[in-house]
Amino acid sequence: MRAKITYLVTAAVLVFYFVLVGSRGVMLIQSGTPVTVTFGIAVLILPVIGLWFLWKNTQFVRKANQLAAELDAEGGLPVDELKRTPSGRIDRDSADEVFAKRKAETEAAPDDWRTWFRLAIAYHDARDTPRARKAMQRAIALHDGKPVEAA
Known about the structure:
Elements: H1 2-31, H2 34-74, H3 92-108, H4 113-125, H5 129-144
Helix pairs in contact: 1-2, 2-5, 3-4, 4-5
C-alpha cells in the first residue's frame, strides 16, 4: 500500500509540474515574438512527453497488477523461496538459483504468460530491472493475445 501512495504522490507532483511548465510555455507563446514563440513551443513539448511517459508507465503498472491478481487467484504466484542476508537483502546466489528455474520453466512454455510473469519476478529479484520489465511486457502481451516478437 505504501508503494501505491508513493506512486500517487509522485504522479500528482509531476502533473502539477507539467501544468506549471505548460503554463509558462503558453505565456511565452502569447508574448508573440518569434524567439519566445519558439521557446514556448519547445517548453510545451516537455510536459507532453512527460505526461505520455507517466501515462504509459501507469498503464504498465496497472496491467502488471491485474496479472498478479489473476495469477494469485489461480494460486500460481511464485513463492518467495529466496535466502536473505541478515540485513534483509536477497542473497545473489539464491536469486540466481531461482532465476535458473524460472528461465527453464519459460523455455518449456514460451507462450504462457504465467511463466513470463514469474520470470519477470526472478529478473527483478536478481536486480536486472530492464529485463524484468521486458519479461513483464511479454507476459502482458501474451495475456492480451497480442503478437509477440521472438526474443
